[in-house]
Amino acid sequence: MSEFLDQEIKFLPGVGPKRAEILFKELKIKTFRDLIYYYPYKYIDRTKFYKISDIRTEMAYIQVKGVLRAMETVGTGGKQRLVARFSDSTGTMELVWFRGIKWQKEQLRMNKTYIVFGKPALFSGRISVVHPEMETEEEMQLKPVGLFQGHYNTTEKMKKQFLTSKIINKFQLTLLGLAKGKIRETLPEHLITQLKLMPLEQALSAIHKPEQTTELKNATFRLKFEELFLIQLKILALKHNRKQKFKGFYFEKVGYNFNTFYEKFLPFELTNAQKKVIKEIRRDVNGTSQMNRLLQGDVGSGKTLVALMTMLLAMDNEFQSCLMAPTEILAQQHYQSISKMLDGMGINVGLLTGSTKAKQRKILHEALQSGAMQVVIGTHALIEDTVSFNRLGLVIVDEQHRFGVAQRAKLWKKNDLIPPHILVMTATPIPRTLAMTVYGDLEVSVIDELPPGRKPIQTMHFFENRRAQLNRFLQQQIDKGTQVYIVFPLISESEKMDLKNLEEGYRHISDTFPDYQISMVHGKMKPNLKESAMQAFKRGETQIMVATTVIEVGVDVPNAAVMVIESAERFGLSQLHQLRGRVGRGAEQSYCILMSSYKISSESRKRLETMVRTNDGFEIAEVDMKLRGPGDLEGTQQSGVGFDLKIANLGRDGEILQKARNIANDILDDDPLLQKEQNQLLLKNLLSSKDTSFDWSSIS
Ligand code: ADP
Ligand code: MG
């Protein structure tokens, strides 16, 4: 059954096939629906009139009521222009046309009152408006525009074909006229009543031609709510669905492994946050469904230990566990620290990465298949089909943002009937609103406390003029026995130049500190060279590590207490925060010094100021989202759950989002499969979105 809004855009009066093609190419507008859901990005208040004497050239636009006094054509040939004098009681300004001169001359009536609208400029000492919009008082009254005029984003290609914001506005008005009484409501009656929402048809009309501010506000709320609510409904339906569909393994026992480790091997007290999260996990694995939990915790908050304790729980219940890390270095590091912590417990832990030799790999595969190996730590190599387990009960994924939903799903399938429990760990703090949307199908735990005794890292921002001071400081620190990281940007577009910068930086540092040993690590190095350089630094044989962002994730050298970031203005906020997290792991006071050039954009300045002001990863993530917008944040693209927000904004609409999520939850609690009559509209909507951005198949 086709609806009115499903009609192709070329059939809208005034559009036609040619403009339809451009609309599709440039804005993906194919149907009436696509057009009506293409919202203005701003409004211009057509109720406001200016006096000519008040006009300033900084104003974005002006609207003036006045009388046309004189008109003459100036210049010759291509340089010809039509200049008119336009006055009100306070002064006179000029109106100028370069095109359509003849037509304008015929249209305009001398000594008539007009309403002029346009962008003011200063031209040989006089205020002027080029190509103004002109209307008589009668025309103004007849026009069906709202008092606020919507402005629409257009592209260069569109402008060339005269598809301007004004034309889009005209199309919208035409469409709204035709659509009267034909737009079907998308939200069920009970929700509209409960939340006092503006009905859809009215909201769509008001969003394009609002008559008053309250009307615009109500329309905006309705459309934002709908957008966020439908996303939440999808995500939560997915979660409910999965809970129903998949049984989970029952880790009922807390036994020998967990208890022995806790009592005899654990080298320190757990923080309260760690205890809280372990409790949450135990509740998950003690239920009837599969755990799908996201563990967020700032760098150094002790997530690995939580992972380890969960693995011990799996072992107590005769299950195998695997821990997957995004890089070889990280996998090795986890392997070493976990093996060390478990030393003496008689647990068989393996390491499987891309560089594991064939012979070793074979032994490992067999041990996993027979169940002789209880824990395996590795990289993507773990996902390969050749790896099979005897009884895989727990999968831990470290640094989630590098793995997509599809990859997670592949690991689940390593157990035929019942999927293993999943714990995803990330040190990239995700703003709450984004987490609810991107990882909305996961339960979320947060470790919001660092282990005791850590001194907050001191962060400073230096310009080049303090280079000598920096060098003296580094000298002092190294003489005290501290190790130092110096990080250079390496961004793929300019890789060659960056590599040159890095090598020059390395030479410069070698010249400045001739008495110290220096390691260098970058992404273009062979893995084994990279590894041996890392190890030399870790063992304390070198004092300075010159590196690119390859050290960004997870590398742990407690004795390194100083992080210098060169050209810090070129890094994103979350990257700066990740890098800074490499220090502050030992007992010494740690420092992070951000070096930048003098010329930095205001956005870069804001990033550096934020770093200096706070160590709180969540605060940093919020600022990051406000600066960049959620779509740009690391992880959103790879998360596998696509969403395209047309009107809501995750940075600003957190409250509406929370409301939408609560209501979606209530509806699903009451009617999990959306079978009730009153929810049919929602079910239809959910099913129709299956083939769009949501990849349902990779999840279920
Ligand atoms: P994350 O993975 O969250 O960045 P790690 O698990 O690597 O953090 O822990 C960082 C450091 O803190 C490690 O050296 C770890 O041994 C130590 N650590 C973890 N938990 C505690 C604790 N409760 N008390 C003291 N030190 C801890
Ligand atoms: Mg870690």
Look at the structure and give the mean pLDDT: 86
Uncertain parts: 633-641, 690-700
Give me the count of strands.
22
Q: State the end-to-end CA separation.
A: 29 Å
- Seen as an oligomer or otherwise, the chain set is single chain
Portion in helices: 40-55%
CATH homology superfamily of the domain at 458-614: P-loop containing nucleotide triphosphate hydrolases
Main β-sheet, spatial strand arrangement = 6-7-4-3-2-5-8
Query: Main beta sheet: strand number and arrangement?
Result: 7 strands, mixed
Determine the CATH topology of the domain at 458-614.
Rossmann fold
Q: Report the β-strand fraction as a percent range.
A: 15-25%
CATH architecture classification name of the domain at 458-614: 3-Layer(aba) Sandwich
| Ligands (ions, cofactors included) | adenosine-5'-diphosphate, magnesium ion
Coarse morphology:
globular
